[in-house]
Amino acid sequence: MGRRFDSFVMFAEMRTGSNFLEANLNAMPGVACHGEVFNPSFIGKLNQTSLFGVSIADREADPMALIRTLRAQTDGLAGFRYFHDHDPRVLQPVLDDPLCAKIILTRNPVESYVSWKIAQATGQWKLTGARPPKTAQVRFDAAEIEAHVSALQAFQVQLMHALQISGQTAFYIDYDDINDLDVLNGLASFLGVAGLAGLDASLKKQNPEEIAQKVVNPEEMERALARMDRFNLARTPNFEPRRAPMVPQF
User: What one-character-per-residue DSSP string does 57-117 give?
Assistant: First the structure.
């Protein structure tokens, strides 16, 4: 019996846990996630300027040729990470392809925003077990978070609409789920590959403190978030916050 998919794309954003999810995907037999192959500054990973003989200039001239090369040169399922600000020319062809599995990774946008600001301040974008964590408190900017949430929300709605009109579905996974082995093995089942015996241990969570401890102006952050009405949670499945059962209150 043939596989349901011949490739995949992980739709994610900065500071959503995509490095960790990629590491676990690469630990699955027959799966190869090649990173941010359409990042404007590199191909795949930081400081890498070519992949399978395709240079940045080649990619800019014909972005779909890079996808064809990835699929041809990879044994099993070839995939990559795509963020909302990556090359828009590949988005619709990928969305239209039913043989390309869609993984949609989300995180509370306020958490991802604060994590992004800390990474900018410290220069530490990935934490492995051998490196000490760098910490910093950052300033919460109300206008900046509104722009951040608006961009992520618009992209999520675009993905949802494209999948709806083409009759496809995606595997939605939240930042809070990526350390759950059962969920990751559910993702493996969705992709049609063998699951994992355990989680990848090479990456560590950065900045585990409460969000109020990560900013220098928590009161201003609280006031700004109380005024915002941009989340529109019902439109994007995994923006719904986790809640405990409410049965006792009924």
Answer: HHHHH-HHHHHHHHHHHSSSEEEEEE-TTS-GGGHHHHHH-TTEEEEEEE--HHHHHHHHH
